[in-house]
Design goal:
The structure holds 2 protein chains of 2 kinds. Chain A has 11 helices and no strands. By secondary structure, chain A is mainly α. The longest helix of chain A is centred in the first third of the chain and has 37 residues. Chain B is of the alpha+beta class. Chain B folds into 3 domains: 152 residues, 3-Layer(aba) Sandwich (D-Maltodextrin-Binding Protein, domain 2), CATH 3.40.190; 108 residues, Periplasmic binding protein-like II (D-Maltodextrin-Binding Protein, domain 2, 3-Layer(aba) Sandwich); 225 residues, Roll (Dipeptide-binding Protein, domain 3), CATH 3.10.105. In chain B, the strands form 7 sheets. In chain B, strands 11, 12, 13, 18 and 19 form a 5-stranded antiparallel sheet that branches. Chain B has a 4-stranded mixed sheet with strand order 1-10-9-8, with helices on one face. Chain B is flat and about 85 Å long. Classes of the chains: A mainly alpha, B alpha+beta. At the A-B interface, loops of A face helix 7, helix 9, helix 11 and strand 17 of B. Chain A: One of its GO terms (biological process) is peptide transport. Chain A: It is found in: Cell membrane.
Chain lengths: 299, 523
């Protein structure tokens, strides 16, 4: 009961729009394939591009497939893909970042230069290059995006790991003769994962867009699996005659991205003991913007 | 300031601004009064007739052939007014049109004709053309009579002479000492005024020997994206868009333009979309019962409806009847789920929902490239759903245009899609290029080859006397049909749209010609 209460309290602290959109995304992402009213791939060419009706609540697409079912199952596709991409990217990033933060010295230099190289190339270019070599498909898309995504989490992990390693309790552990593995697995890794997960939450929206972009370009999810980006590109020729076909997947994607972005931002800004008021949040945002400016000026 | 004065002055200012805004529009309309503006999907490129880069339709504006490929494959006089084949088909006697000059004033005569033909005939680069491969010599009889001698009779000789390149004629003064074409100067009705990556501008050549266009200028504007072309037509920036190669217009865009009051012109099309099987990669496809089941399992009407919205005809034959020597037209197979399922059962593929044989599921990879064949993704999704109903699992593998060519050449597909070459190349262009195993095709790969059974039939058709060609070709068509070697799907239409400024528009005879003829422009 207590965890549930604390979850509800935590949720109450989040903006309502975030709670609604992320919850809907997660709900349809998990249960979409089971609760979809129709087979999302079942075609009925006599019903091509029909508007909403009692049978098809959100109408049908250009091949007479039920739009509502496709949107629901596409949430599952996006959630799975985004989850996989982030899981792989975070695993690589956290491993490299924590090793760099723990070892320091030439190991850190080497790993961080690798990260710099990764960060200097736009993620879409890396993804396109990887897909160009491996060929389009679900797993190549996940692999390509993960390769493009890991450097940022590596950099954050390294920063967090360095700060943890400088804390007095780590010093004490060393003095007491704790083994490097114990320090790494029991103290450094759990602390780093917690911080990087916040970044992952904010990044889920961008990853969803990347999945949709690759599918939009025909390089990601292959038919007949429904995916929002693919639904968008399929509907584009009908923008004028039936804008509904474009608007619906576009709205779903936008809502998911905004939801995750605001969730990530809220968690990041609320990582202080007391929840901030709106005014405090605004001040904090301006402060953060100032940091960014200072960093750019320094660079 | 009094209220009335304020209102008067405000009205005057607004009125002046509105007129000012309209002025460029009025100027623009006047500037385009005598100009046909037509879209091309990419820059026209190097217009050298001996290179392979330019848009054919742009070259068609300036350069003319000896004979022209007309509608239905009719060979019509152009720079040659008469011709005859003698010495068992090894000598072509040509009578050249008198009074023709190139756009730089150079006369087109036997010397210019000989010089042009000897630039490319008999060279290794153009060995892919029968007339070049079998070329022996050109003999000038007098100023307007030329004989071309060949080592052996040339199949589709007149068709080859109608090609846009290299067969057409350039002024000898437009070529430098190294043989490079420096200016695009032909005998055609249009003379190029300027060329850039954005547009090619032409003006009417008033010394043209034939019927001159009724308007003075033609602008070929480069707009790569289909929706932008549609928008440009709607806004009045363009007069004509469309064609399979020139500036493709998708069927749904055509429908939308039709609803918006634009005129749509649909040609029956002389290109066929064919489903090709690769028995070397897929064991299941070695059995012609499986190939037949796939052909029967596909509803061609529905496939055509999904993308072409009724503009495309279902195909049962390799070539449409608008092409010469296209043979007996086989009826497009109607979808028959029961018959397809029975064939698969007979072939040993049983069970469901996906059939299997000896524990192996009937899974077939379908390689598609929507960049290369517009609408293929939609059509493949329809086929995927239809074939699933008969227990075949189709795995769609979507690739870009460049990868498609590589995968087709390396035969990395179970089912692939091919387009026939269309007029003026067919039937022999496609037959030799896509079916003859001894002919190396480095671009599209092979649709189907069988050195033992198919090659002798093709060679017999190539070597046949003109009067026997049709019968020999029919044997080839029958073999393909009887063995379900391929599954023709649709005859791809040529779709055009034009504004109400354009009157008398007719689709070109081939997808490589520019449709400028017969057009009159309204003021």
């Amino acid at each position: 009961m207590r965890p549930l209460v604390s979850l509800v309290t935590w949720l109450k602290g989040l903006p309502r729009i975030t709670v609604v959109t992320v919850s809907l995304f997660l709900f349809f992402g998990i249960f979409g394939p089971w609760i979809a009213p129709m087979d999302p791939s079942a075609q009925d060419l006599s019903l091509m591009g029909q508007g909403p009706s009692a049978t098809h609540w959100l109408g049908t697409d250009h091949l007479g497939r039920d739009t509502l079912s496709r949107l629901m199952v596409a949430a599952n596709t996006s959630l799975t893909s985004v989850g996989m991409v982030l899981a792989i990217a975070m695993t690589i990033g956290i491993t490299m970042g924590t090793i760099a933060g723990y070892c320091r010295g030439w190991v850190e230099d080497l790993l961080m230069r690798l990260v710099d190289v990764g960060l200097s190339i736009p993620s879409l270019i890396i993804s396109l290059a990887v897909i160009g070599i491996v060929g389009p498909g679900y797993w190549s898309m996940v692999f390509a995006l993960a390769l493009a995504w890991w450097p940022m989490s590596a950099r954050i992990s390294r920063a967090v790991a360095v700060s943890i390693m400088n804390k007095p309790h780590i010093e004490a552990l060393r003095v007491l003769g704790a083994s490097p593995l114990r320090i790494y697995f029991n103290h450094l890794l759990p602390g780093t994962i917690g911080s990087v997960m916040v970044y992952a939450t904010a990044d889920a929206g961008m990853a969803a867009i990347a999945v949709a972009t690759l599918s939009f370009l025909g390089l990601g999810i292959q038919p007949p699996t429904p995916e929002w980006g693919q639904m968008l590109v399929d509907a584009l020729p009908y923008l004028e005659s039936d804008p509904r076909q474009v608007i619906l997947p576009g709205l779903a994607l936008t809502a998911a991205v905004i939801g995750f972005n605001t969730l990530g931002e809220t968690i990041a800004l609320n990582r202080v003991p007391k929840r901030l008021s709106r005014r405090q949040l605004l001040t904090r945002r301006m402060e953060v913007a100032g940091w960014h400016k200072e960093t750019s000026d320094a660079a | 300031m009094k209220r009335r004065m304020f209102l008067q002055r405000s009205t005057a200012v607004i009125g002046a601004s509105a007129l000012g805004g309209l002025y460029p529009g009025i100027l623009s309309a006047q500037a385009h009064e005598n100009t046909l503006r037509i879209a091309i999907s990419k820059a026209a490129g190097d217009l050298d007739l001996l290179k392979h880069y330019a848009i054919w339709a742009v070259q068609d504006l300036m350069f003319e052939p000896l004979v022209k490929y007309g509608k239905g494959g009719e060979i019509e006089p152009c720079l040659a007014t008469d011709w005859s084949l003698e010495d068992g088909g090894t000598t072509l006697k040509l009578t050249l049109r008198e009074g023709v000059t190139f756009q730089d004033g150079t006369p087109f005569d036997a010397a210019a004709c000989k010089w042009n033909l000897e630039r490319w005939m008999g060279t290794e680069k153009f060995e892919w053309m029968s007339c070049s491969k079998n070329f022996e010599s050109v003999e000038m009889v007098d100023d307007y009579h030329v004989n071309i001698h060949f080592k052996a009779p040339v199949i589709s000789l007149l068709q080859e002479l109608s090609y846009t390149r290299p067969s057409r004629f350039v002024s000898p003064n437009a070529v430098d000492e190294e043989g490079n074409q420096v200016e695009p100067i032909g005998t055609g009705p249009w003379r190029q005024v300027s060329a850039s990556e954005a547009e090619n501008v032409f003006e009417r050549y008033d010394g043209y020997w034939g019927e001159k266009p009724s308007y003075e200028r033609l602008e070929a504007k480069v707009i790569p994206e289909s929706r932008s072309r549609v928008a440009a037509l709607r806004s009045g920036e363009l007069d004509v868009i469309g064609g399979f190669w020139i500036a493709p217009l998708s069927p749904i865009e055509a429908k939308q333009l039709e609803d918006a009051g634009f005129t749509i012109s649909v040609d029956p099309g002389n290109v066929t979309l064919v489903m090709g099987f690769n028995p070397d990669r897929s064991e299941a496809l070695r059995d012609n019962r499986v190939r037949r089941a796939i052909s029967l399992g596909v509803d061609r009407e529905a496939v055509g409806k999904a993308f072409y919205h009724g503009y495309a005809r279902p195909a049962g034959s390799l070539f449409s009847d608008v092409l010469p020597l296209s043979g007996q037209q086989f009826e497009a197979p109607a979808r028959d789920v029961a018959a397809a399922s029975a064939l698969l059962e007979e072939a040993g593929w049983t069970g469901g929902p996906i059939r299997s044989k000896e524990g192996k599921p009937l899974s077939i990879e379908m390689v598609i490239s929507p960049d290369a064949v517009p609408g293929l993704r939609i059509m493949s999704e329809v086929m995927q759903a239809q074939l699933k109903e008969i227990g075949i699992d189709i795995v769609i593998h979507s690739v870009d245009h460049a990868t498609k060519h590589t995968e087709m050449l390396e035969r990395k597909y179970d089912i692939g899609f091919f387009l026939t070459y269309g007029a003026p190349f067919d039937p022999f262009g496609t037959i030799v290029g896509l079916f003859l195993s001894t002919f190396k095709n480095d671009v599209e790969g092979k649709l189907y080859t069988d050195a033992e059974h198919l090659d002798p039939l093709i060679n017999a058709a190539i070597d046949a006397k003109p009067e026997d060609t049709e019968a020999e070709l029919q044997k080839f068509y029958d073999w393909l049909h009887d063995n379900d070697a391929i599954a023709p799907l649709l005859f791809v239409p040529g779709i055009w749209a034009h504004s109400d400024r354009v009157a008398g528009f007719t689709g070109p005879a081939t997808e490589y010609d520019m449709p400028y003829e017969n057009i009159t422009l309204k003021a």
